[in-house]
Amino acid sequence: MAVATTKSDMLDSTFDVDKLTFEIFSILENKFLFGGCENPKLSLPQNNQQILTKNVTESKVRILSIDGGGATDGILAAKSLSYLEYCLQRKSGNPNASIADYFDVVAGSGSGGILAALLFTRGKDGRPMLTADGALRFLIENRRKLNQSPRGIIRRIFRQAKVEKLFRATFGECTLKDTLKSVLIPCYDLSTRAPFLFSRADALEMDGYDFKISDVCLATSVDPMVNGAVEMRSVDKKTKIVAVDGGIAMNNPTAAAITHVLNNKQEFPLCKGVEDLLVMSLGGGESDLGLENLNSTPARFVRVAGEGASDMVDQAVSMAFGQCRTSNYVRIQANGIIGKKQIKSEKRTNILAMTEEMLEQKNVESVLFKGKKIAESTNLDKLESFGGELIKEQERRKTSILPTVVLKQGSPSPRTSSATTLSTSSSC
């Protein structure tokens, strides 16, 4: 018996064809844009009722941002990352899981830039140069060398020479092209009187923007009040900058990292807004600068200005995330004022105990038009929860049809050209 075809049936059939057509052309477009690489995930789903956009819109770009300076000189951030890496290993069942495996972008300023370099520079085995625990040990063991403020020109020169030697011994000839993910590290360039952002993406575009990692770490951490500026050149010697502390340019680089992702459609083609981001921002603790004394040194005023700017960035970013700020944006910061001299004079075991105490504090959240409030969860709770979200995103990418991240790839050092290719792995 024949069944009459109604207008509604015809519309439903047309709609199904349109969905299938959309899926087909999306896959063809993806293969065309990303070099026609063979990827089993780019095959058509067996059931044409699956909506392609569902998997696409659920994926999120993962950003890690690390403040410079602060009372702990990066040790609080390093301890946070050590705990987060432990969470990721435990939740994923992979004892070798690293921070670099679960973030697509890292931005770090000052000591945060050094941390970013340690965790995201490619080692000899192709894995990150250091684990989070290793990076924590590096900052603790070298904290006096990195953050000392000696008096006298001669002592300052010797201190600067020691720091340069430390970075060269740690990173060797590695450059920005040798980083595993999208890396952003700022400094302030006195020659142009503007912020300069060392960027892996720019380095892969032009050798004139490729710098040695040792020089990048020096540029972002040099204290202008102690050592003045540092002159350096790109790998091809064509670009010269006169660098001072990244904290002067952007002590909290979170906003720069978000802007980089939202405006870089080549590497992050599916990211449309903050709802497509997962962001973790790490502070360094608020320091007791004694600014009630009007005779405070210029260095102290510079530091308090940097910490104030970090709080402003946190407020602005939190407001930009709106209703999803508690799920898509996490800020880890110590609540109270910490004596910086006390941190520097403490032994390693005591410093670790102090940072653990900071992580056990209740988390501080920015509230729309209402400043900040103390949340019920602690910093450790937030790290644990965010680690779960990172694991979910990693698993989601295994079933995603289109790649969330398409990072530029270049040949490792040594290199003779600036030729780049595109990697279309959806689990970047």
From TrEMBL:
- Top-level taxon: Eukaryota
Keyword Hydrolase annotated: yes
Compositional bias of kind Low complexity: 411-428
Q: Where is the PNPLA domain?
A: 65-258
Region feature (Disordered): 407-428
Instruction: Check the UniProt entry and state the signal peptide residues, or none.
Output: none
Q: What EC identifiers does the entry list? A: 3.1.1.-
Which PANTHER family does the record associate with it? OS03G0784100 PROTEIN, PATATIN-LIKE PROTEIN 6
Q: What is this protein called?
A: Patatin
Species annotation: Jatropha curcas
